[in-house]
Known about the structure:
The chain is 67% helix and 0% strand. The protein is mostly helical.
Amino acid sequence: MPRKSAKTEKSRPPSEETLPALGVLKPQHEAFCQAYARVPNGAAAARAAGYSPGGAAYRARDLLKRSDIAVRVAELREEIENSRQAKIDALIAKLEPVYDATLAAGDYDGVMQVVELQARIAGFIQGGQALKARLRLAARTKDTAGSETMMSLEAALEELDAPAEVSDESP
């Protein structure tokens, strides 16, 4: 009977029985999971865990097929998301007294700014979306301020609507 070469043995994918028990990862595997949970780029995570740069993509592919790795990455992602949400909740809670004080003072522009900031922190608003809406509202409600205020608000709106210029020079 012909003998199998060592190369043939190594090229077979690992079976579930040769994998370590769930919850017990080697330090390098844990490092891979930590890196991949933060930034889901397999090759970069493998390099960060100390694997050879040349074979990092292949190693990542093999590791990501393993159920113990997938479970650990899911756990880490949940921890990261819970931590992020706790920070968001704390920041928004810090703004509540400011909201209450500006509302009590009748400073409705201040109230809108606090609400906008809370929405930005929560991730509901990105870019200049809310700022545009606030400027448009201010332009409608400040009709007694004169045409100079209206022109500056309109200029600000046009600036927000204008596409960003792209430079060929690197910073």
